Amino acid sequence: CYKMYIFRSPYIDDYLQTTHITNYLLKNNLAKAQQVELIADILDRNGKVVQTIAKTSTVKANSAFNFEVKTAVANPELWSTRYPYLYNVVTRLKIDGQIVDGYETPL
Question: Are 94 and 36 spatial neighbours (Cβ–Cβ below 8 Å)?
């Protein structure tokens, strides 16, 4: 059984250029190590994927692993009270090509 915890929400880092998605904590409660793939799609307000991040790692048996993920979105639409633009981050965790967990997080 795998659990995915996002303990720091995505945020815009240097205001105009870098979307910094960080700290996806994966917990492997199985008795054997597993190779896992973390995929995060950044979607604009219309649901169009503007950036995809994918990382693969092996998580030891009965242990946790922290993925830190960074990416850049060119010319991001910035949120303001006059223009409340939000992106969404759709995160999936795969083992052996099968999605075993997922979240959608506003950005």
Answer: yes
Q: Cα(48)–Cα(12) distance, rounded to whole angstroms?
A: 19
pTM, 2 dp = 0.77
Q: Tokens for 1?
A: 């059984």
Length of the chain: 107
C-alpha–C-alpha distance, residues 71 and 46, integer Å: 20
Q: Which amino acid, 60?
A: K
Report the C-alpha gap between 107 and 103 in whole angstroms. 12
Q: Which residues of 49-73 are buried (b: 16+ CB within 10 A; e: fewer)?
A: ebbebeeeeebeeeeebebebeeeb
Structure tokens given for 75? 């010319």
Which amino acid would we find at residue 12? I
Give residue-wise pLDDT tens across range 43-88.
Answer: 999 999 998 989 999 989 888 888 877 777 778 888 788 988 888 8
Question: What is the pLDDT at residue 107?
Answer: 77
Give the rounded distance of the alpha carbon of 83 from its chain centre. Answer: 25
